[in-house]
Write a structure and sequence with these properties.
single chain; alpha/beta; Aspartate Aminotransferase, domain 2; 5-stranded mixed sheet; two-stranded parallel sheet; 5 helices; 32% helix
């Protein structure tokens, strides 16, 4: 079993999810889920990280701001959850695509990386292919019939190694409690004033 797969399995087990797909960052995990579900709209809270709200422009879909007080996670669509700051055992919500982050300042801080948690093995495989240039890992791409569009959003083995090394300490340490006011009101930023 390769390092990335092992890290995926450990994170899935911690969160209580049937499957986990490693990606290079949480925002790209959200993007892959939005592409996979063919979402037409996202509903970000007014206080969150700006790259999440920018996905509407990147994907040319509708953005509807929500003034909500959220803790640990929020729904971006009916079944896609931004859980970038969530760190709690057995917290996976069945029937959703739940995206977590290992970026700087997150509880399991690897400098880069994220994970998409989901229920269905077929969906997990499709998301894996989407993250990995349309192919499955560990098989030379020239030997594969590539039929899935890929986005080069995969997690490197080096990042997965760091995750495995730091995982037990993260499990043993209480996480920081984030609140929406840890982020500014995105509507006040010039980039969002026209939409």
């Amino acid at each position: 079993m390769n390092t990335v797969t092992k890290f995926e399995n450990e994170i899935a087990s911690f969160f209580g999810a049937p499957h986990a797909v490693a990606v290079d960052c949480c925002t790209h995990g959200l993007e892959l889920c939005l592409r996979y579900t063919n979402a037409k709209e996202i509903k970000p809270p007014t206080h969150t990280y700006l790259s999440v709200a920018m996905l509407a422009d990147k994907l040319n879909i509708k953005r509807t701001w929500r003034e909500i007080y959220w803790k640990d996670y929020y729904y971006l669509t009916d079944d896609i959850i931004d859980a970038a700051v969530l760190w709690e055992a057995d917290s996976y919500i069945p029937g959703t695509f739940m995206c977590i982050s290992f970026q700087f300042q997150k509880h399991l801080s690897l400098g880069r990386g994220g994970m998409v948690l989901c229920d269905d093995p077929t969906e997990a495989l499709i998301l894996k292919k989407m993250s990995y240039d349309g192919r499955v890992p560990e098989v030379p791409w020239r030997e594969q019939n590539i039929y899935t569009v890929g986005y080069h959003y995969y997690m490197t083995p080096e990042t997965a190694d760091r995750g495995l090394e730091k995982l037990q300490e993260a499990i043993d340490t209480p996480p920081r409690s984030w609140v929406p006011n840890d982020w500014p009101d995105l509507r006040t930023l010039e980039v969002f004033k026209n939409g």
